[in-house]
């Protein structure tokens, strides 16, 4: 009998594929699932036909005014949305092409950053955090030396204001939240209590109160020549509010990272800040992606509150447009609110869908 010694080890076999549940097992697997499925089917059967009839079949798609929309039996008045769409997007902004160019630049940079395997992301980061604010300000505010007349923020309105508020608030929320969360864990008592006081004070006040404080109190702390613009004051309040809520999300992620990760980074020769930046923070932020996106979704919807301090946001534009006598009527106003709901729902669903995909990629990378 001869001995056998393998010179090379075979690679381990892949795990057997998990058998997913069929649609029948998911929908009718037990009594509870069956009851829920049947209840949803009954609700869909009762609600979908009249909704489809109102939104599409009986809808008014083209009309010079609201007369056809006020007729008995008329459905949604999409002609009103088409007629007022520029007002919904730009407000009273006189040159829409400048807004479209800024939107396009922001969209290109965001898609570039969010693509998983995009190249040269450092350039995209620089363009988003430095180039976009500078170019966007020149485009939207104006630069007479470049042939762009100045457009005051009192003419900005509609989706332009809502998207600026949301994008700037989200951009400031994550770094601001990380800074506050790290400050809350600091060993310096003064810094720790300053961050704790800021977080608890802002989180304990409603956003409306924070907006009023930013709009009224902020100019009192600055010289008269440095009074911030009417658009910047609510923007500061939104950024502060979002950062305070984001700090608690980030703090939860930091607490979920085992202490051994920091000790391993120190054993490998990393400094405290290198270990935090390269080891701890990526794991902490990856663990709280749902909470981060939840804050972003809430922030996007909360931008409707800036109308209270005098800004002309998207929802305020819809409410103002329905006061036009040519387009007066309950069906017309309802169509405007349906369009507003679709606007906010579309952006929120896009953020949630990307977050789910990102969670899947992070979970796969951790395996």
TrEMBL record:
<feature type="transmembrane region" description="Helical">
    <location>
        <begin position="123"/>
        <end position="143"/>
    </location>
</feature>
<dbReference type="Pfam" id="PF00528">
    <property type="entry name" value="BPD_transp_1"/>
</dbReference>
<feature type="transmembrane region" description="Helical">
    <location>
        <begin position="33"/>
        <end position="56"/>
    </location>
</feature>
<feature type="transmembrane region" description="Helical">
    <location>
        <begin position="68"/>
        <end position="91"/>
    </location>
</feature>
<feature type="transmembrane region" description="Helical">
    <location>
        <begin position="234"/>
        <end position="257"/>
    </location>
</feature>
<feature type="transmembrane region" description="Helical">
    <location>
        <begin position="278"/>
        <end position="300"/>
    </location>
</feature>
<feature type="transmembrane region" description="Helical">
    <location>
        <begin position="97"/>
        <end position="114"/>
    </location>
</feature>
<protein>
    <submittedName>
        <fullName>Amino acid ABC transporter permease</fullName>
    </submittedName>
</protein>
<keyword id="KW-0813">Transport</keyword>
<feature type="transmembrane region" description="Helical">
    <location>
        <begin position="155"/>
        <end position="183"/>
    </location>
</feature>
<dbReference type="GO" id="GO:0006865">
    <property type="term" value="P:amino acid transport"/>
</dbReference>
<feature type="transmembrane region" description="Helical">
    <location>
        <begin position="332"/>
        <end position="357"/>
    </location>
</feature>
<dbReference type="InterPro" id="IPR010065">
    <property type="entry name" value="AA_ABC_transptr_permease_3TM"/>
</dbReference>
<dbReference type="InterPro" id="IPR043429">
    <property type="entry name" value="ArtM/GltK/GlnP/TcyL/YhdX-like"/>
</dbReference>
<keyword id="KW-1003">Cell membrane</keyword>
<feature type="transmembrane region" description="Helical">
    <location>
        <begin position="204"/>
        <end position="222"/>
    </location>
</feature>
<keyword id="KW-0472">Membrane</keyword>
<keyword id="KW-1133">Transmembrane helix</keyword>
<keyword id="KW-0812">Transmembrane</keyword>
<dbReference type="GO" id="GO:0043190">
    <property type="term" value="C:ATP-binding cassette (ABC) transporter complex"/>
</dbReference>
<dbReference type="InterPro" id="IPR000515">
    <property type="entry name" value="MetI-like"/>
</dbReference>
<comment type="similarity">
    <text>Belongs to the binding-protein-dependent transport system permease family. HisMQ subfamily.</text>
</comment>
<dbReference type="InterPro" id="IPR035906">
    <property type="entry name" value="MetI-like_sf"/>
</dbReference>
<dbReference type="GO" id="GO:0022857">
    <property type="term" value="F:transmembrane transporter activity"/>
</dbReference>
């Amino acid at each position: 009998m001869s001995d056998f010694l393998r010179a090379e080890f075979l690679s381990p076999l892949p795990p057997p594929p998990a058998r997913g549940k069929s649609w029948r097992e998911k929908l009718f697997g037990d009594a509870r699932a069956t009851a829920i499925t049947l209840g949803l089917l009954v609700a869909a059967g009762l609600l979908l036909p009249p909704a489809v009839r109102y939104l599409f079949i009986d809808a008014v798609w083209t009309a010079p005014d609201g007369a056809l929309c006020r007729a008995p039996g008329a459905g949604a008045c999409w002609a009103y949305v088409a007629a007022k769409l520029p007002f919904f997007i730009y407000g009273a902004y006189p040159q829409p092409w400048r807004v479209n160019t800024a939107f396009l630049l922001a969209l290109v940079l965001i898609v570039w950053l969010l693509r998983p395997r995009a190249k040269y992301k450092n350039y995209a980061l620089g363009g988003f955090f430095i180039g976009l604010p500078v170019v966007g300000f020149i485009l939207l505010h104006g630069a007479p030396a470049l042939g762009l007349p100045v457009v005051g923020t009192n003419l900005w309105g509609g989706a332009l204001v809502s998207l600026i508020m949301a994008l700037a608030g989200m951009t400031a929320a994550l770094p601001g939240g990380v800074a506050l969360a790290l400050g809350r864990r600091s060993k310096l008592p003064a810094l720790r209590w300053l961050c704790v006081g800021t977080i608890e004070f802002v989180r304990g006040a409603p956003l409306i109160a924070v907006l009023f404080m930013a709009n009224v109190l902020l100019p009192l702390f600055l010289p008269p020549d440095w009074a911030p613009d009417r658009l910047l004051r609510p923007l500061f309040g939104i950024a502060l509010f979002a950062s305070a809520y984001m700090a608690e999300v980030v703090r939860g992620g930091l607490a979920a990272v085992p202490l051994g990760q920091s000790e391993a980074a120190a054993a490998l020769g990393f400094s405290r800040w290198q270990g935090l930046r390269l080891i701890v923070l990526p794991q902490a932020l990856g663990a709280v992606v749902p909470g981060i996106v939840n804050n972003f979704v809430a922030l996007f919807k909360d931008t409707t509150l800036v109308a209270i301090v005098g800004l002309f946001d998207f929802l305020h534009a819809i409410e103002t447009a329905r006061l036009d006598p040519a387009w007066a009527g309950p069906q017309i106003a309802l169509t405007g609110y349906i369009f507003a709901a679709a606007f906010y729902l579309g952006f929120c669903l896009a953020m949630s869908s990307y977050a789910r995909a990102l969670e899947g990629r992070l979970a796969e990378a951790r395996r």
